[in-house]
Every structure is written in C-alpha cells, then in structure tokens.
Write the structure tokens for this entry.
Amino acid sequence: MRPHRYVAALAVAGLLAGCGTAESGSDGPLKMAFVYATSTQNPFQEMAFGAKAGAADAGNVDLALSAPSSVDGPQEVSLFQSAIRNSPDGVALETLTPDLFVRPLNQAADLKVPVVAVDTAPPAGTEVDLYIGNSNTEVGRLLGEEFVKQVPEDATGEVVLGNAIPGLTLLQQRLDGMTSVIKEKRPNLTISGPFDSGSEPTSNFTKWNDIVKAHPDAIAYLGVGAQDAVSLALIQKNTGRKFLAGSCDPDVAALQAVKDGYVFALASPEHWMKGYIALRLLADHKRTGKELPKGWWNTGSLVVNAANIDQIMERQKDEASRKAAFQAEGEKQLADPSKHIKPIGEAN
C-alpha cells in the first residue's frame, strides 16, 4: 500500500492568522477534517480510508485529511489548529502524543468545533466526551491466545516482547493483555522485555535485528505495533532462521508474512471502522443537531491467521474492497450505539 499524502504542514501560521470560522449552511457541504499521527504507517492509513468512506456515505462532506509524514507531535498540533479553523463542522483526531493536545482541544471547544477522539483516548482536562477505539487489552489477549496455540502446555523457553512506542498507553494495554494470557496458560515460559522496537519502518527493523541477536535462543518474538511483523518476517528471510512471530495490524507486508508462514497471527484493531464511525457520527450531529454519544465506542477487533488470511488479503486489496467488507458492520453499529458505548473511564 502506498502511503497517501494529503495535507502538508505548509503555511500553517498563515492559515491560523488568516482564517476565521467558515460558514456551512444546511445546503452547503459540511467542512470536516480528520487529523492523524502519520501518513506513512498502516494503522493511520486505515483510519483515513475509513474516514473518507464515512464522509462519502454521509454525503456532501468536504473532508480534509492531514498528517505529518512521520510521527511529529508538535507538527500535528499545528495541523489540528489549522483544521479547527478551516473545518468548523467537526474534526476527528487521532494522535500518539495526546498530552500535547490539552490546550488545542480546549481551543476547539472555545470555537464550538465538535471533536471526536479516535484510537487514543482524549487527555484529561479537555471537553472531548466521545472516544472511538477498540479494546487494546482484548487485542493483546487475542494475540496471546493465538500464540499459546503454537506451543505445548509444558513448553519452556524465552518469549521476547517488543513495544514500538514505550509509554503509549494503548500499546501497553496490548502488552498487558498478551502477557496475562501467556502467564496463565504457559507458565513455564520466560518472558523478556518489552524492549523498544521503534515505530518507523527502518528503526523498527534495526531494533528488532538487535533484539533477536541479543536473544538468539528465544522461541518467539512478539510485538504490538504495525511494523513488528514486517521486520520479524524479514529477519527470518535474511537469516534463514525460523521462529514464532506475531504482532498487530493488517499492513500489506504483514499479511503476506502470515500467508508465507513467517507470522502465525496478527491481531487487527480494525482501524478502518474507527475512522468510518467517527465521520458518520460527526456529520449526523452537525446535520440533525442530535447530540454526539458520550463515552467509549468500542469498534471491535479481529484475529488474522492462516484460516482467514486469503479473505483478509482480499478485503485489504483497495479502498473499495475495504468499504464493501466493512460497511454492513458499520451500519449495524450506527443503528444501535448503546451496544457499543461504555464510560470512557472503562476504555482498555
């Protein structure tokens, strides 16, 4: 999948200085935005695809998509501040640096711009009441359950964990879910880490290469980020060594690694659905005046393994195939929000 590039952070200061709140009458297009962490990694591309589909299904939405070309919190803050000036009908925000957004989110509230948090819970001290994201603890447990199927109950040996962004709550939740399963069901295994595996493709490969060399006898290497499976598959190809590898997210190269047998499973947070639900809710709120739901909207997750890899690879072929596969579930969730909403404080 080629990374898509939408809005560069050019002349942000000029936009902030020169743009007031745009008018969006009921007959004109809604001016909305999705601002996300980076345009070059699969999870965020998936969310953007979902947001585009949600805007298209809502109809008559002028959607601006913007993200830095690598994870850059201050640059994303600038993009968000531009979005709340130029897309006053609603903004969906996904960020890996939520602590930087307390003031910008309060600026959005002051401007009466509706904001929905996507993928990462809103930081404390803001007025964002709706968070759309999967259960990351469940994602970790799903991967852990797939892993324990690969080894006997009395197995011994080392299992090495990687964390692509140490300190990021959602990835720690995945690790916690995964390790709880392993400790419960395979207590004789020794768990090492998590070690910093880096989120960007090049650094992720380099760091995993070093981790594998430092733990050469481990029976498995498990990550919780989007790039981990890609790197671990490549290490196996380069070295000729075979080991158990698993991770998260349906990156095209990670899916191929499952297909080729280098990765036993991926736990997918189903990012597409988050972007889709966020834009549909924002558009409906603006058009009808209906209040946005309050709480944590859990959009679900999925295991990708040898049993369904062909189906998922077909689903992930392009934007149209994604929409065809996800749309019925999206409509089902939107038809009965109460089944998917819990208090934000319960998000895990």
